[in-house]
Amino acid sequence: MTRPTVIHKEPVRRGLLPNWTDYAQERSRFSWDQARLALQGLPGGGLNMGFEAVDRHAAGVLRYHAALRFVSKDAPAIELTYAELARQTNRFANVLQSLGVGKDDRLFLLAGRIPELYVGLLGALKNGTVVTPLFSAFGPEPIATRIQLGAGLVLLTTDTLYRRKVRQLRDQLPSLRHVLLVAEEGGVTHEPDTLDLATLMAAASDSFTTVETTEDDPALLHFTSGTTGTPKGALHVHGAVVAHEASARYALDLHPQDRYWCTADPGWVTGTSYGIIAPLLQGVTTLVDREEFDAERWYSLLVQEHVSVWYTAPTAIRMLMKAGPELAQRYRFPCLRFIASVGEPLNPEAVWWGQEVLGLPIHDNWWQTETGGIMIANTPAFDIKPGSMGRPLPGIDACIVEHLEAEGELPRVRVIEAPNVEGELALQRGWPSMFRGYLNNEARYAKCFAGELYLSGDLARVDEDGYFWFVGRADDVIKSAGHLIGPFEVESVLMEHPAVAEAGVIGKPDPLLGEVVKAFVSLKSGLEPSDALRLDIMAHARRRLGAAVAPKEIAFLAVLPRTRSGKIMRRLLKARELGLPEGDTSTLEAGA
Ligand code: ATP
Ligand code: MG
User: Fold this and answer.
1) pTM for the full model?
2) 361 close to ligand 1 (CB < 6 Angstrom)
3) Of 108, 115, 202, 271, which has the fewest CB atoms closer than 10 Å, so is most exposed?
4) Residue 392 and residue 376 in contact, taking contact as beta carbons nearer than 8 Å
5) Of residues 562, 559, 484, 495, the one with CA closest to residue 517
6) Could you write out the DSSP letters of every residue in 20-52?
7) What is the largest CA-CA distance in the chain?
8) What span, in angstroms and rounded, lies between the C-alpha atoms of 124 and 96?
9) Quick one: which of 449, 458, 447 has its CA closest to 422?
10) Which value, in Å, is the radius of gyration of the alpha carbons in the chain?
């Protein structure tokens, strides 16, 4: 089917005007100092992420508005208003103070998406304590390594997770002074060397004065997804809140009346920046689902919870596509008004699926753990070109660079001015949510910069209208017979084939051509691999890409190896193909 190359922006959607409509004008009048004025600041002139997210609203008109709404399969929903969230986070901050935990100390969180996780994170921020949320499905080793690396002083977890994953390694965690346990089945925990969180919370006062933090004080330590190697710890500051506020307005189009659902777990930067902080800053009601992905449940939640803005990931969209259109057609989504996606390239096929099945296009956006917030996005202010990541948000200057010979240790680059030339995606430094260091690795941090430019490690190109197109990660690009082939282009074409649900493409060493393209694909529900199907997919790819770029080999896999944050791990496909060691697999999804 031939489709138009753009999806036009809509002036009004479901009766709401978008937050902005004129890209050029907004960019030209934007300044970070001006954006800071949307926030209140602390009385002494400081800035604190937790205060801005919670207390600012708890003292204003939104105090009785639902801030967080927790849902799960077996228990009734729990709703916390902004006022209640302020009281609970105050209690938690007081608990930390009573334990002698203060500014710059480190708190690790290890729990499913339960209220205590959110209260702990926001309360710690108000106390100036640096927070690291961990993904609760991690095994004992990755948990211990991260707590060791980050010198965690306090751990908040549940009694079940503690017994299963932490207790046996406790003696290897010398920095860990306090373990706070949530009793999952209710009651009080009596685990030795731990404290019962509910008991401490009940005894703590619900008033607290936010600790005076500045915009340069550390707030969050996030580990990257580990897609390309061992996860890195990226340190973020309280000042990032300015970027969270602005980007949620521009890229997610949040309005206070929205019911918003971010499907990412807070163990990943998206689940914190846009699953907790940014929506609270905008005063919306955020849905938190405790359960894992299930196509039927997700469609039902979108409908029953009246979700109006939905922020999800390509992997989830592909799984919904895999489940088939019949399931989706059983539902209507009258409240849904804006959908965005992040984490991996969003194939044009997926954008069109949104348009055709959900009635709305999906707005892809690009950012990284290191950037702390959305940098490049499709927004309501301009047309979508399916397959493009969109354009840099106001306050963000992005460009494409090529590497020159390095002088000493540090990279040197030149900006490529011409459109449509592939190179490394770089950003002008100076946006407030930029990471301020890699944990224990200053040398690696220094290498991320060439003068005033931050180098992302991703390859992209920019077209004549200023839209950015993802090509691939620098590590994943395939060099075949003198061509540079981006895996994304090949994967997107494979995804167009009606039988293909997911595709991951690698370069396989070849004595003649350097590398040849090999594709791994999983099929849509109900389809079986066969030689005939392989040939048909191969023929489709040749037709669309030409023989030089199309895969020479296609292998069928039931599931592709993915990180727990949902990214295809091409390095693992490659290592397995070549019989090489798999490297760090701490973030690998179970069963892949
Ligand atoms: P690691 O750095 O440990 O290998 P990671 O880079 O996957 O892991 P994240 O910071 O979670 O860790 O992911 C950021 C990366 O995800 C980006 O550098 C990019 O490669 C990819 N990404 C994110 N959003 C998009 C997008 N919209 N299109 C294409 N790629 C994206
Ligand atoms: Mg990365």
Assistant:
1) 0.95
2) no
3) 202
4) yes
5) 484
6) ---HHHHHHH--HHHHHTTS---TTS---HHII
7) 72
8) 8
9) 458
10) 24
Q: Is the CB of 308 under 6 A from ligand 1?
A: no
Are 364 and 355 within 8 A, CB to CB? Answer: no
Which pLDDT band, with edges at 50, 70 and 90, does 592 fall under?
A: low
The alpha helices in 325-367, defined as continuous H runs, are 325-329, 348-353
Q: Which ligand is the nearest neighbour of the Cα of 368?
A: 1
CA-CA distance, 158 to 109, in Å (whole number)? 10
Which domains can be identified in the chain, with CATH numbers?
Answer: 31-292 (3.40.50.12780), 398-475 (2.30.38.10), 481-578 (3.30.300.30)
CB 127 within 8 A of CB 204: no
Rounded CA gap, 69 and 66, in Å? 7
- For residue 269, give the ligand 1 atom closest to its CA: 11
Residue whose pair of structure tokens reads 């920046």 in the numeric block: 273
Q: For residue 1, what pLDDT band results from cuts at 50, 70 and 90?
A: low
Query: Is the predicted pLDDT of residue 71 greater than 70, yes or no?
Result: yes
Residue with tokens 């228990």: 75
Q: Whose CA is nearest to atom 28 of ligand 1?
A: 345
| CB of 129 sitting under 6 A from ligand 1 | no
Give me ligand 1 centre to Cα 369, in Å. 8
Residue 367 in 3-state DSSP? coil
Other CB atoms closer than 10 Å to residue 166's CB: what's the count? 23
Q: Is the CB of 284 under 6 A from ligand 1?
A: no
Closest C-alpha to ligand 1, atom 15: 368
* Residue among 413, 414, 51, 84 at smallest CA distance from 245: 51
For 137-196, the pLDDT digits (tens) are 999 999 999 999 999 999 999 999 999 999 999 999 999 999 999 999 888 999 999 999
Structural tokens at position 535? 């040939």
State which amino acid sits at residue 496: E
CA dist list (Å): 420 to 365, 373, 400, 425, 437: 19, 25, 10, 12, 32
pLDDT, tens digit, 9 for 90 and up, residues 224-257: 999 888 889 999 999 999 999 999 999 999 999 9
Which residue is associated with the tokens 């691939």? 472
